[in-house]
DNA sequence: ACCAGCGCTGACTACGTTGTCATGCAACGT
DNA sequence: ACGTTGCATGACAACGTAGTCAGCGCTGGT
């Protein structure tokens, strides 16, 4: 099968047009086309326009493979994400791709499997095979495996899940947001706030535990021991059955909304009214949270802002984005705690501070 | 800055090793290295091993850019996905990447923005710029915009959202699953089943409406008019407030679990017990569904199976997967309806058919 | 009048891989 | 002894782009 153009007649070529074809049509050299396409200097306005229209006419699209071959850069980053549809990870990934595309960089995803320790390593390996300029570990689970990396491809993480990688979300909102939620409960008059945490292998879970603990320590209070769940409503329910045997429990901060849902169910079944007898907060503000019974006081994460800021670091490390690096926007500190009806002052203080009415 | 190796001393090269380097170390030609790497025939076992160990020693990784440049194929497909963390789209995307990687093909994602009609077109354009062998439109929303495609890059869709594209999920489970749920309700003795649908712009929503309608028509029943929501619990709640004015309503099939949640809340507030007075089904089987009050009867989708089957079509079109195409597995028809406690016979038949006890 | 500098353009080459073709060698049948 | 066949290997070209450098015409300073 000859790939070259047949000598006579209309050249019915299959091959997509290249710079050489554009150059021929515009009557210039291939190099000049390259200059126009890359917006280099030293091209007269006249030639520039001629090349542009020729490119448009042929439907020319620069070949990224050839470009990557010679520059050694791919204009792509790899993202290792946990293969789950959970609200947090999924939202993070969307935010990541948005911010990346805005910087002219494409995203190649590889999903891991929770519980398979080496799936992170496999994903990294796969991405390195594909050719990427950098890799971001967005998997929030630390299975304790060290990732062997290519020295030429820097490794980053969203939430310090990998020691070999630089964390792009250093000052992220997890701990701080949870602290806000706990302080809300303490401000309402609760003496201590119990905590239903996420799995200890998840860094966001650890951060939230930290924020919960910090809120107590700032007031010189010793927090009760946290209970570990696995993000599912089932685990929140089970935790509730254990915690609620202690009559001192009046306020519980859950590490996500799903566990809060399960916990509320445990309360209901135990005959403990929410929020009259027990106050509950969630984390994530999933769409359903406002329609729990009662509507859940929870924390809304700022994925977009955090990711954009973190990606700014990465882009600067890569030596400037191809299409002009947007400066990371100033850290706009929007309110994160969404107060609904699952929180109220404890029963013994009900008359002092009347509960807010949301609706 | 000279890129070539300095003449004297240790060659402290920055450039990653190529086949030429491996060849030099193994004492063979570069072409032979290519043969070994690509598992071609006509290489003696001895040489093969020598090359392998040389490649391992240098940490050689074939350069995909160079390969793509000459073969004209990238080993990548682009996926246009809706930028949302909703359960369905997110699950689909994970399943898609899993199946694709198993076939040795990488995924480049581009997210759209719901409500921005041209964001699909922009995403496609962006993916074409990146260089992909095919594009899958996984965005479930049809904004009615036609997508201009490159003739060299075939366009596929997951759920026929784009007329220019071939649908990979032709016999998918949406309609059939919904039909199963509705038949479950009819079997329980309900005369008619109301429907809270998703937005009419979403194809999965249309398919579910279709399944709901089909279940009625198969029994010669005229279904009541469907009510359209927007997937959120809020819309399910609002729909409930409208529907529940009609005392004839005894069973409602919701197009997703979140709307079912909102609808249940509307029932509760209206003093209508679920399932004693009104039966409700959801769709998706999100983790929280089992912990609603009451636990939700819903439908579990088979993303993995559907996507693997659909991808089989694509891979065969692309002319066989690089690393050996796995044949699409036989369509294992696992049960999809998960019966929990939100469904029961209507009040007037309660004594005839006792409700199942799940727990 | 001459050269230096600037703006603009093109020729040539390298990038790392695969495709094509040629070549060397051994085994085999005549 | 000879050609034929098949395996194993290498030489060489090509893919489409960007980097390097040379060269053009013009301007301005000496």
From TrEMBL, chains A, B:
InterPro entries: HTH_LacI (IPR000843), LacI/GalR-like_sensor (IPR046335), Lambda_DNA-bd_dom_sf (IPR010982), Peripla_BP_I (IPR028082). Residues 17-71 form the HTH lacI-type domain. It holds the Pfam family LacI. Residues 349-359 have a biased composition (Basic and acidic residues). Keywords: DNA-binding, Transcription, Transcription regulation. PROSITE patterns: HTH_LACI_1, HTH_LACI_2. Residues 321-359 are annotated as: Disordered. It comes from the Bacteria. The keyword Transcription regulation applies. GO terms for molecular function: DNA-binding transcription factor activity; transcription cis-regulatory region binding. This is LacI family transcriptional regulator. It comes from Glycomyces artemisiae.
């Amino acid at each position: 099968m000859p790939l070259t153009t047949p000598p006579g007649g209309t050249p019915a070529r299959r091959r997509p047009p290249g710079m050489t074809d554009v150059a021929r049509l515009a009557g210039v050299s291939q190099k000049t086309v390259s200059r126009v396409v890359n917006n280099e200097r030293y091209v007269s306005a006249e030639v520039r326009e001629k090349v542009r229209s020729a490119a448009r006419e042929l439907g020319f699209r620069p070949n990224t493979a050839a470009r990557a071959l010679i520059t050694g850069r791919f204009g792509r980053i790899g993202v290792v994400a946990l293969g789950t549809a959970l609200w947090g990870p999924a939202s993070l990934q969307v935010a990541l791709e948005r911010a990346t595309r805005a910087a002219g960089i494409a995203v190649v995803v590889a999903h891991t499997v929770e519980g398979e320790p080496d799936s992170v390593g496999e994903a990294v390996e796969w991405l390195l095979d594909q050719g990427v300029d950098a890799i971001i570990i967005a998997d929030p689970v630390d299975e304790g495996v060290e990732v062997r990396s290519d020295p030429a491809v820097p490794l980053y993480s969203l939430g310090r899940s990998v020691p070999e990688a630089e964390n792009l979300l250093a000052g992220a909102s997890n701990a701080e947001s949870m602290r806000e939620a706990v302080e809300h409960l303490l401000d309402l008059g609760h003496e201590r706030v119990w905590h239903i945490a996420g799995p200890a292998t998840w860094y966001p879970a650890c951060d939230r535990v930290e924020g919960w603990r910090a809120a107590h320590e700032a007031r010189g209070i010793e927090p009760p021991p946290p209970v570990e769940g696995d993000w599912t409503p089932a685990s929140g329910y089970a935790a509730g059955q254990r915690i609620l045997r202690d009559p001192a429990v009046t306020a519980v901060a859950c590490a996500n909304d799903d566990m809060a849902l399960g916990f509320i169910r445990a309360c209901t079944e135990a005959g403990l009214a929410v929020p009259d007898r027990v106050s509950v907060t969630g984390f994530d503000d999933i769409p359903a949270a406002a329609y729990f019974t009662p509507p859940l006081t929870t924390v809304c994460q700022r994925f977009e802002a955090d990711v954009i800021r973190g990606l700014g670091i990465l882009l600067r490390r890569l030596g400037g984005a191809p299409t002009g690096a947007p400066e990371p926007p100033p850290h706009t500190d929007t309110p994160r705690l969404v107060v609904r009806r699952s929180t109220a002052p404890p029963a013994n203080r009900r008359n002092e501070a009347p509960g807010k009415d949301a609706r």
